């Protein structure tokens, strides 16, 4: 074993200088014993014991063949002159010689701490060969090794001898002071050493195999020896040793970066351990020492020996014997490998001989012979098959040549399987023309790709863009999109539109804001397919998210207005879901959301009012107002992010969760305030500080919120006051806008900033009852929008009370002011659409029913007509009808008359027989009670109601109640002496009969009531309006003909005047006459006035 010799006493220069002064008794035989230690030597064993050293006999250095005691030499060395100081190297040698390993280790540690490293101890403890597989046991203190073998001093063997464990297996706590160990501990140590030995043998076998594989053939070695100028190739073991020395040199000389690079390039070697080079290979001197001693050969450690000690493998104990066996085993393995190598060499020679035998055929004969193998290399495919690719580039070239021929022959349903192959080839192919052809194939792969196939192609395009970078995307992918922008199939154009959005993040910014934006703008304006324009809008939104050119703001604004005006609902939805949120995010970055974008939309809404001479353009109002509504979440985000408290936001600690109903449901994730802010945690923390700021600290210095309060809100309220209150569409749009606005900005903001501004304008107080006192605003749309858009935002008890009080005040004020009720009606219609507010509205109306003023009671009675249609029949029976019955017995006749439209609406909408009978009885009392015979306004209201509800009422109610009473009223009108009243009644009767003429009427009712009533009405019209008399005569004639025909064919059938017009001439005449007249009361009245 090539290891450091612990018995070599000449390793220290200090000891070499002292050696001439030391004497060693070489003639003393073992039988004479060793001299006793000097009295002052603390390192000697006790006087009554033999030195516990390992005694070796050697025939190499002792001419007499007698062994000497190594301890005697050490003792004589330490017994020199008293003045001479003992060398630390001598002490180390003594400790190692006597196998005081632990003491030597502690001694070595103390020297290291003192900065006096001893080479002997360093080399000894750094060499694992001194500790592994040492099964030999040093003799006990009473044992000596003589010619007769191990002897015991009392004739018996001591139990102190045990295995010398390796340092990494020592457990000092397990050894007692007397040295005794348990059997299981000994077994554990032996198992560990056995495992280490097996691992070492395995490593040796691996090194041996590597060395055998890389061994230079013998013939080449002869060439190297005969030609010294030819250097023999380096062996793996030599390479690893040199690598270790080079790395050590680099580290010692501060070439740390070079050392790191060198280690990375040799990652199969551990430069921290010399043992990784090879098993028990001694570490040579460093490169500097090798360079300095390159002229003189270094002595081999195996060839050096102490003057007084010889080494013989026969007498080596334990570890050396085991290593000798390992070496023998390895030599045997080497011999086996050499034999195997020779056998393989012989087989190679035989194969070469066979090849030479085959080569005896002439090349022409060989070619003719092989021609009988059916191979084809003349065609394109044959040439590709016969030419196997041998590199990545050749594979790409082959795929580029073959794919254009493969694609047309693959089924359409399976062509998406080729997408990865096409993209990979297009990415890596070196030829631009081939890449362009492959991408052209990709975009034309499927004739009409469905959603899944388009998604697959888009995924591939994005992967291609990530791989090749913006330049190639612009040069290679965009031209493919441009070519198909006008493709005849919408699916292909849809692919182009989607590609523009998907590739936006990977394009150069100049191309995004110029070419791609122009392509999408052209498609939005020209494409006729809704799904293509929808995809265009979404891609435009993505472009807006990545655009950074402020000059493109105006173009983006125009694109937003253009897409909002699209006739397709799905396109408009895409604008609100994607484009507007992205555009708002960009304007937020530019700082123009509340300074430019929102004011521009408000200006366009105001312009609609100024230009609307013939009425407001409701469609454009919807477009602009819906865009404003979609900008509410980003506006609120701007207010939060620019608030004075943003620097105090803390995301750690207990942050309360946001209530589910805190914000209106967003149209898309991009309109979610949490998404705009960044996270729900951040939004929750900001909302806490926002509410606290509004409630306790005010808005001083909060510019974005002050703009909302001082500029946006007043402008919106002013616009609301100018819209037409009778336009239910406008009222609904503004109500929805204010509802979302108030819910987004929160309850505290609504109560402290929004409501006060409305209340200041409405001024609901007793002194302002008179319309002339500046209360005209109550007749505007401000009332329904405030009631339905602001007061309904929150549904707590105090909020409901506030809404009820406001509606009661409006109803009272308008009634007492004799003002139009349109604003109150609009409020009831908007609120009545939601069943949640039915009870609340009934509460308001009951307040009017019991009011002391007859004007207020009349208003309440008329409001019931609006509410009946949406209320369920249970509420009608329990709340509505009792209130109407109460009003129908009111002392004021005007109040009683006001209930008639509501009763008629109940007859039109309710199906409960009991309820209908109660209403029928009440209406009958109005018609048959003598006190109402001269009530002209009551009769007018009843006829008007019959004409409105008759076509939709129950047929039995119409036949048994409506038509007979209309006949009576027509008959009574013939004897009316007051001409104005007669004209009014005739006008209403004509409108009622015109509406009822389209209903199916039984023959009996037709003969007994309908026709007689028409004749009575014709009698009035002969005197008052001959034009209407012509129409009535035609109606009567056709009804008579129908009755005669029905009597002959189907006596029990029913008929309608419209269906009884059998003759084309009669039908044309009737319709033309009806078309020439306007059946409104005002027009008929004018006709009658001209008659007079």
Automatic annotation (TrEMBL):
Segments passing through the bilayer: none
HEAT repeat ranges per the UniProt record: 880-918
Stretches with biased composition (Basic and acidic residues): 16-30
Predominant place of localization: Golgi
Lineage top rank: taxon: Eukaryota
Biased composition (Pro residues): 35-49
Subcellular localization(s) per the UniProt record: Golgi apparatus, trans-Golgi network; Recycling endosome
One of the protein's GO biological processes: intracellular cholesterol transport
Keywords: Coiled coil, Endosome, Golgi apparatus, Lipid transport, Repeat, Transport
Coiled-coil segments: 327-354
Region annotated Disordered, chain positions: 1-69, 125-161, 210-230
Assigned GO CC terms: recycling endosome; trans-Golgi network
InterPro entries documented for this protein: ARM-like (IPR011989), ARM-type_fold (IPR016024), HEAT_type_2 (IPR021133), LisH (IPR006594), RELCH (IPR040362)
Biased composition (Polar residues): 1-10, 127-137
Protein name: LisH domain and HEAT repeat-containing protein KIAA1468
Lineage: Eukaryota, Metazoa, Chordata, Craniata, Vertebrata
């Amino acid at each position: 074993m090539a290891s450091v010799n612990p018995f070599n006493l000449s390793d220290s220069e200090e000891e070499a200088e002292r050696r001439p002064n030391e004497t060693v008794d070489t003639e003393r035989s073992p039988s004479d014993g060793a001299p006793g230690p000097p009295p002052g030597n603390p390192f000697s064993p006790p006087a009554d014991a033999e030195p516990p050293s390992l005694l070796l006999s050697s025939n190499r250095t002792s001419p007499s063949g007698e062994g000497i005691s190594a301890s005697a030499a050490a003792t004589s060395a330490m017994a020199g002159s008293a003045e001479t100081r003992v060398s630390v190297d001598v002490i180390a040698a003594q400790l190692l010689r006597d196998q005081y390993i632990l003491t030597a280790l502690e001694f070595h540690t103390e020297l290291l701490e003192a900065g006096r490293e001893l080479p002997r101890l360093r080399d000894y403890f750094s060499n694992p060969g001194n500790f592994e597989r040492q099964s030999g046991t040093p003799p006990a203190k009473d044992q000596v090794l003589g010619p007769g073998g191990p002897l015991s001093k009392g004739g018996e063997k001591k139990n102190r001898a045990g295995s010398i464990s390796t340092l990494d297996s020592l457990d000092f706590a397990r050894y007692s002071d007397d040295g005794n160990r348990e059997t299981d501990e000994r077994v554990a140590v032996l198992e560990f050493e056995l495992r280490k030995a097996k691992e070492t043998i395995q490593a040796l076998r691996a090194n041996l195999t590597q060395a055998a594989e890389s061994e230079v053939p013998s013939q080449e070695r002869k060439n190297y020896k005969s030609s010294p100028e030819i250097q023999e190739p380096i062996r793996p073991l030599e390479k690893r040793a040199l690598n270790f020395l080079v790395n050590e040199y680099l580290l010692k000389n501060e070439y740390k970066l070079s050392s790191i690079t060198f280690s990375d390039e040799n990652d199969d070697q551990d430069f921290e351990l010399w043992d990784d080079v090879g098993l028990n290979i001694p570490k040579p001197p460093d490169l500097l020492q090798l360079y300095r001693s390159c002229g003189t050969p270094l002595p081999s450690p195996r060839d050096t020996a102490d003057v007084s000690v010889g080494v013989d493998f026969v007498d080596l104990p334990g570890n050396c014997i085991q290593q000798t066996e390992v070496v023998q085993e390895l030599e045997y393995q080497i011999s086996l490998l050499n034999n195997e190598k020779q056998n393989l060499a012989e087989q190679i020679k035989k194969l070469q001989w066979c090849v030479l035998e085959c080569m005896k055929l002439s090349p022409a004969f060989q070619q003719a012979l092989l021609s009988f193998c059916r191979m084809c290399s003349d065609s394109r495919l044959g040439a590709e098959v016969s030419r196997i690719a041998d590199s990545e580039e050749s594979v790409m070239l082959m795929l580029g040549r073959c794919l254009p021929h493969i694609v047309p022959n693959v089924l359409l349903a399976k062509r998406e399987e080729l997408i990865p192959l096409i993209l990979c080839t297009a990415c890596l192919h070196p030829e631009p023309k081939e890449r362009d052809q492959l991408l052209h194939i990709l975009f034309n792969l499927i004739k009409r790709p469905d959603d899944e196939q388009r998604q697959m192609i888009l995924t591939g395009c994005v992967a291609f863009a990530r791989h090749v970078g913006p330049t190639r995307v612009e040069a290679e992918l965009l031209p493919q999109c441009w070519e198909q922008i006008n493709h005849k199939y919408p699916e292909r154009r849809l692919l182009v539109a989607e590609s523009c959005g998907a590739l936006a993040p990977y394009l150069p910014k100049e191309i995004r804001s110029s070419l791609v934006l122009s392509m999408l703008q052209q498609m939005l304006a020209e494409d006729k397919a809704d799904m293509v324009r929808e995809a265009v809008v979404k891609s435009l939104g993505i472009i807006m998210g990545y655009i950074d050119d402020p000059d493109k703001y105006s173009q983006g604004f125009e694109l937003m207005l253009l897409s909002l005006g699209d006739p397709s609902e799905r396109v408009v939805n895409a604008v609100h879901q994607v484009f507007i949120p992205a555009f708002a995010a960009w304007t937020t970055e530019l700082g123009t959301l509340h300074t430019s974008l929102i004011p521009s939309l408000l200006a366009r809404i105001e312009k609609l009012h100024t230009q609307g001479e013939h009425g407001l353009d409701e469609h454009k109002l919807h477009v602009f107002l819906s865009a404003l509504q979609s900008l509410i979440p980003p506006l609120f985000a701007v207010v939060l992010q620019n608030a004075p408290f943003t620097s105090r936001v803390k995301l750690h600690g207990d942050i309360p969760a946001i209530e589910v109903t805190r914000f209106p449901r967003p149209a898309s994730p991009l309109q979610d305030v949490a998404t705009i802010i960044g996270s729900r945690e951040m939004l929750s923390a900001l909302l806490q500080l926002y509410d606290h700021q509004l409630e306790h600290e005010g808005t001083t210095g909060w510019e974005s919120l002050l703009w909302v309060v001082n500029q946006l809100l007043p402008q919106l309220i002013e616009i609301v006051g100018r819209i037409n209150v009778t336009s239910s569409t406008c009222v609904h749009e503004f109500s929805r806008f204010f509802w979302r606005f108030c819910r987004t900005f929160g309850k505290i903001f609504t109560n402290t900033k929004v409501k006060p501004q409305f209340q200041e304008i409405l001024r609901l107080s007793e002194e302002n009852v008179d319309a002339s006192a500046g209360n005209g605003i109550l007749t505007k749309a401000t009332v329904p929008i405030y009631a339905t858009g602001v007061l309904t935002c929150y549904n707590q008890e105090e909020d409901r009370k506030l809404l009820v009080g406001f509606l009661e005040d409006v109803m009272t004020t308008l009634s007492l002011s004799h003002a139009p009720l349109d604003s109150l009606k609009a409020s009831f219609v908007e609120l009545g659409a939601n069943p949640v507010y039915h009870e609340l509205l009934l509460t308001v109306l009951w307040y009017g029913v019991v009011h002391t003023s007859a004007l207020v009671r009349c208003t309440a009675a008329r409001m019931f007509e609006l509410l009946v249609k949406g209320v369920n029949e249970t509420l009608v029976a329990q709340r509505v009808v009792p209130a109407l019955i109460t009003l129908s017995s009111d002392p004021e006749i005007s109040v009683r008359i006001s209930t008639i439209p509501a009763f008629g609406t109940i007859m039109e909408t309710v199906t409960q027989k009991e309820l209908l009978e109660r209403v029928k009885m009440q209406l009958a009392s109005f018609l048959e009670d003598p006190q109402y015979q001269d009530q002209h306004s009551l009769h007018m209201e009843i006829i008007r109601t019959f004409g409105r509800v008759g076509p939709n009422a129950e047929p039995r109610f119409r036949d048994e109640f409506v038509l007979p009473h209309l006949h009576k009223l027509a008959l009574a009108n013939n004897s009316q002496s007051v001409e104005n009243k007669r004209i009014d009644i005739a006008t209403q009767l004509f409108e009622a009969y015109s509406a009822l003429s389209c209903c199916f009427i039984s023959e009996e009712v037709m003969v007994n009531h309908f026709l007689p009533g028409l004749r009575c009405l014709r009698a009035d019209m002969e005197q008052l309006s001959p034009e209407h008399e012509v129409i009535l005569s035609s109606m009567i004639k056709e009804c008579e003909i129908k009755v005669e025909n029905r009597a002959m064919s189907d006596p029990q059938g029913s008929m309608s005047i419209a269906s009884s017009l059998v003759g084309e001439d009669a039908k044309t005449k009737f319709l033309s006459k009806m078309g020439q007249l306007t059946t409104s009361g005002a027009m008929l009245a004018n006709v009658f006035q001209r008659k007079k």
